[in-house]
Design brief:
This protein has about 300 residues and is of the alpha+beta class. It has eight helices and nine strands. About 35% of the residues are buried. The structure holds zinc ion. The site of zinc ion (ZN) has 7 residues, from helix 3, strand 4 and helix 4.
Length: about 300
């Protein structure tokens, strides 16, 4: 690996930083060697963090000439994301910690995707997460991996998580963001909706966070085998999205992945409503005409 701090120049946003890194390291291997990258960029130690309420931390100086990352012990994918997130704080000079020289991040910070307007702390957490996702799943490599599987399928989300060394939910977020189809992934825990990720073209999901997974969802089927994604099945679209009465209802397919610990992902795929054909419209109009004119 050849990257050094000089290569990053004045890049300040997550996207600009990752772009520079990928220019210098076009042949990054997968899983991305994040610890080696840290060492090249001024993080000389990665230590275990023993504090229940925090997931990760960074100790550094005001000039950011060097730093130590702290990461909670646990699964490797989670730890890799924490390390990449803290590297993001380290490389973004405008990220000012709450206490001088010391960032401490909770697990809710590591999941944060949006920030309240004007909340600088939330904004920097969102940026560190964007940096971590882009760095661990570089878009050109992700695109290549996804091109092999055009049909939306949770098997592919699991394969991406395994190959890129990231958590299933991190892979799910990127999958939904980059997949060309209209899809969403609902993350459930113990029967309740925890988080929803959807592509830009997928309508808003009507189940609020914290509400139970709809009773008629495939999720509640008794035929699931743990750790194996189910087959896909059509469901009533109004379980998940608002269906206008006077429009044709879209078709939604569900696929469910259930873990023994109660974590689940539900993939929703929305099929576009087929355009009414000219023939159908002509027939409907002639029926309406006959109805109103009293003819048979
Ligand atoms: Zn953070």
């Amino acid at each position: 690996m050849a990257i050094s701090r000089i290569d990053l120049g004045g890049a300040g946003s997550p996207e600009a930083l990752v772009k520079r890194i990928l220019q210098v390291e076009p042949n990054l291997s997968v899983p991305v060697p994040i610890q080696e990258m840290c060492a090249r960029l001024g993080i000389f130690r990665i230590e275990d963090l023993d504090a229940d309420e925090f997931e990760g931390g960074l100790v550094t100086n005001a000039k950011r000439s060097e730093g130590t990352i702290l990461a909670k012990r646990g699964g490797e994918p989670r730890r890799r994301f924490t390390i990449a997130h803290e590297l993001g704080h380290f490389l973004m000079a405008h990220h000012i910690p709450d206490q001088p020289g010391r960032f401490l991040c909770k697990s809710s910070d590591l999941r944060r995707l949006t920030a309240k307007e004007g909340d600088q702390r939330q904004r920097r957490e969102v940026e560190a997460n964007r940096f971590a996702s882009l760095m661990l799943m570089p878009p050109h490599l992700l695109r290549g991996a996804m091109a092999a599987f055009p049909e939306p399928d949770l098997h592919h989300v699991l394969a991406l998580a395994r190959d890129f060394g990231v958590g299933k939910e991190t892979a799910a977020r990127a999958y939904v963001q980059y997949h060309p189809e209209r899809i969403a992934i609902v993350v459930a825990g113990n029967g309740r909706v925890q988080r929803c990720y959807r592509s830009l073209s997928f309508p808003a999901i009507i189940c609020a966070v914290g509400s139970p997974v709809p009773v008629h969802s495939l999720y509640h089927s008794s035929s699931h085998r743990p750790d194996i994604p189910s087959d896909r099945a059509a469901c009533s679209p109004d379980l998940w999205v608002d269906v206008k009465r006077d429009l044709r209802a879209p078709v939604i397919y569900e696929q469910v992945y259930l873990q023994l610990n109660g974590f689940a992902m539900i993939l929703l795929r929305l099929e576009p409503v087929p355009e009414e054909s000219a023939e159908e419209r002509r027939l409907e109009e002639s029926w309406r005409y006959r109805f109103h004119s009293g003819r048979r």
